[in-house]
Amino acid sequence: MPKYLIERELPGAGKLTSEQLHAISQKSCEVLKQLGPQIQWLQSYVTDDKIYCVYIAPNAEIVREHARQGGFPANRISAIKRIIDPTTSEA
Fold first, then answer.
1. Which pLDDT tens digit goes with each residue over 32-71?
2. 3-state secondary structure of 64
3. What is the rounded distance in angstroms from the CA atom of residue 6 to the CA atom of residue 83?
4. Among 28, 30, 57, 64, whose Cα sits 20 to 30 Å from the Cα of 89?
5. In the 8-state DSSP scheme, what is residue 12?
6. In what order do the strands lie in the sheet with 3-9?
7. pLDDT > 90? residue 91
8. pLDDT value at position 41?
9. Contact present, 24 and 13 (Cβ < 8 Å)
10. Phi-psi region for residue 37, left (φ > 0), alpha (ψ -120 to 50) or beta?
């Protein structure tokens, strides 16, 4: 199943409270349940003004639908082609 990186522009994201992040996460999970098991949220990274999310999904369209139903921005959706880490340098 393909993986996607979603860039969500959200000014002040880094200043969101734990309660606000909890509410956003709950809404995301509610929408995911409605969309079915073919889309999964793996994790998100919160920066000063953006949230970057990693999802597994059959296509970018269902990722867009999740954003639409949840009321979340999805400013850029990029298919992840490969994953590398320090072990990639090893023979």
1. 999 999 999 999 999 999 999 999 999 999 999 999 999 9
2. helix
3. 15
4. 57
5. T
6. 40-46, 50-56, 3-9, 76-80
7. no
8. 98
9. no
10. alpha
Helix ranges (DSSP H) in the chain: 18-35, 60-70
Which of 37, 28, 30 minimizes the C-alpha distance to 1? 37
Nearest-5° angle of CA 71, CA 50, CA 74?
40
- C-alpha separations of 87 from 42, 67, 80, 83, 84 in Å: 21, 34, 18, 11, 8
CA 4 to chain centre: 8
Predicted TM-score (pTM) above 0.85:
yes
d(Cα 49, Cα 39) in Å, to the nearest integer? 25
CA distance 66 to 40: 10
